[in-house]
Structures are given as C-alpha cells and as structure tokens.
UniProtKB/TrEMBL annotation:
Name of the protein: Branched-chain amino acid ABC transporter ATP-binding protein
Keyword annotations: ATP-binding, Nucleotide-binding, Transport
Gene Ontology BP annotations: D-alanine transmembrane transport; L-alanine transport; L-isoleucine import across plasma membrane; L-valine import across plasma membrane
PROSITE patterns, per the entry: ABC_TRANSPORTER_2
Transmembrane segments: none
Biased composition (Basic and acidic residues): 279-291
C-alpha cells in the first residue's frame, strides 16, 4: 500500500533504496491541544533522518504515534509498505524499535538480561515468561544469548554484562537502551534524545554507534537537541515547530533556512548571543552616566568597589 506526501523533499529515491517508514497526515490532539498536526515523514532504507524542534514541538508525541503508543487522531503510518496497527508490541514485531527520552530499563536486571528481554519479540517466549524466567525462557535465552552478547560487544557494554542496569553510569544506560532496542532486530530504530546528559566523548561514541547501526542495515530516525550531533550525522533533517513540519531537507539546507533560524536555532553558530541585551545595558549605563554628570540623582554606586 502506498501513501502520498504533500510536503517535504520530492526528490527521487536513490537506486536501491526502499521505503522503510511512511507517515502521512499524522495528527494527534489532546483535548483542545493539537500536539502534532498533519505531519508527513518518510525514512528510506540506509537513511539516518533527524527530527528536531523546540521543547514541546511534538517530537516525542510523533514517535508515540509511530510506535503504536498513541492512536493518531488522523493519519496513518506504514512500515515497509504495510499500515501499522496501533499496538506497540505489534509495531515492534513488525520491525520498529525505539528508545525513550526518559530511560526505561529493568533497573534490577543485569545488562545482559535487559538485552535478552528485548529479544522476546523475536522468540516464541513472551515478555511475561522472560520476566519470570521460566523454563521456556531459559531455553530461548540460550539461543538468544549469543546474539545478545554480540549486541553488547557492538555497543561496548560486553564487559558489564553482569552489572545491574541501575548501577551503570547514565551514558551507558542510554547505550543499553539502544542494545535492547536492537535486540528485536529492527529495520527502523527510533532514538529519542540518545545523547541527552552525555559528555562530549559519549556523544561522539553514540554518533559512531548510530553510523554502525546504519551499516548493519537498520534505518534510523533520531530526535535530538544537540544540533552539532544532528547536522554531522543525518542525511536529512525535519523540523517540527508547534506540531507542524516547518522544513525538511539536507542538514545544510535546514541550517541555512531562515524560518528554522527564526523559529528554533536563533543565532547559534555566529554572532554574539545576547548582543541586543548587552547593547540595551550599555545604552542605559550611558544615559545614567550622562544624568549623573548633569548633577541629577542616580544610584551612582559601585557595589563591587571596582576601580574605574
Ligand atoms: N499525553 C499527553 N496529554 C496531553 N498533552 C500532551 C501529552 N503528551 C504530550 N502532550 C503535550 O503535547 C505537546 C508536545 O509534547 P512533546 O513531548 O511531544 O514535545 P517534544 O517536542 O518531545 O518536547 P521536548 O523536546 O521537550 O521533549 C506539549 O505541549 C505537551 O505538553
Ligand atoms: Mg520529547
């Protein structure tokens, strides 16, 4: 089944690329609030697509619509040509995995167990069996353990396989979420702020990890506030503002787009932040100094006792 998009980049799909995600006309209303309005977004195989926008723009809500957590008020989401059901476990089973803005791990399970639980959609054993660690789960576990260890190697967590998830530093918890998401062998990985709270080194390692995920054949849609991360990583970037897709295009085109600069970026890469405010203060000081010189009453104090 095909859907059409009315906005975005009408460029032809490069040879060999296929549709992974097609979201069309997705709208999500909460009572009187329209958090997402008529958003179209496609992701092709082999792509890393960024989704950016100010706080409250509707990015996470859009992810929740894609993954069956919310039933969109309007619109539909198709994965590899099939419209997805509004049930999150069926969406995972179909091939879309995600991480969460607020980390969701089984805190009292080990690193390895968390990844094994992530594999339950690819084994006959259900989540309950995985959590209860029944005989069926243990059998499936043996079969899955090798793949889980591969994923821990891949994410750099193999040495911590027996650590409890809650004892991992924050950056490693985010990595573990990615490993767990990959355990369901997704064709599309959705990352909601994967580098939030990370050091520069961890962010750079996460970039390498996302590139490696793509190399292994999984397309990626990533929400981030770290513009450097997004513009260095993504093939294409879409900008949500107040629930609507404002712009979509290459990182270069999006960075240069005046609407994006005005709505979101401000003047991040050049110019002096706060220059307008500084000019106002200078002007006020000049006025005050002039008034003081003219014998009028002014504060005229120098609370820090600084020498002029
Ligand atoms: N379950 C809900 N019920 C009511 N309103 C909601 C719900 N979820 C989100 N919203 C509202 O929808 C809007 C979009 O929120 P959302 O969390 O999607 O933004 P976001 O772009 O992910 O922001 P951030 O960058 O801060 O994570 C906000 O106004 C939020 O308060
Ligand atoms: Mg969010």
């Amino acid at each position: 089944m095909t859907t059409t998009t009315t906005t975005g980049t009408p460029q032809a799909q490069p040879a060999g690329r296929t549709d992974v995600l097609r979201a069309s006309g997705v709208t999500m209303r909460f009572g009187g609030l329209t958090a997402v309005r008529n958003v179209d977004l496609d992701v092709d195989s082999g792509e890393i697509v960024g989704l950016i926008g100010p706080n409250g723009a509707g990015k996470t809500t859009f992810f929740n619509c894609l993954t069956g957590l919310y039933i969109p008020t309007e619109g539909q989401v198709a994965y590899k040509g099939k419209v997805l059901p509004h049930r999150s476990h069926l969406v995972t089973k179909a091939g879309i995995a995600r991480t969460f803005q607020n980390i969701r791990l089984f805190a009292n399970m080990t690193v390895l167990e968390n990844v094994l639980v992530g594999r339950h959609t690819r084994t006959k054993e259900g989540l309950l069996s995985a959590l209860l660690r029944g005989p069926g789960f243990r059998k499936a576990e043996r079969g899955s353990e090798e793949r889980a260890m591969e994923l821990l190697e891949f994410t750099g967590l193999a040495g911590k396989r027996e650590h409890l998830a809650r004892n991992l530093p924050y950056g490693e918890q985010r990595k573990l979420e990615i490993a767990r998401a990959l355990a369901s062998e997704p064709g599309l990985l959705l990352l909601d702020e994967p580098t939030a709270g990370m050091t520069a080194g961890e962010t750079s390692a996460t970039r390498d990890l996302v590139l490696a995920v793509r190399e292994q054949g999984t397309a990626v849609l990533v929400i981030e506030h770290d513009m450097r991360f997004i513009f260095n990583l993504c093939d294409r970037v879409a900008v949500l503002v107040q629930g609507e897709k404002l712009v979509e295009g290459s990182p270069e085109a999006v960075q240069a787009d005046e609407r994006v600069v005005a709505a979101y970026l401000g003047t991040p890469f050049e110019g002096e932040p706060g220059e307008a405010e500084a000019a106002e203060v200078r002007e006020a000081e000049t006025r005050e100094a002039a008034a003081h010189d003219g014998g009028q009453t002014g504060t005229g104090e120098n609370p820090k006792g600084e020498q002029h």
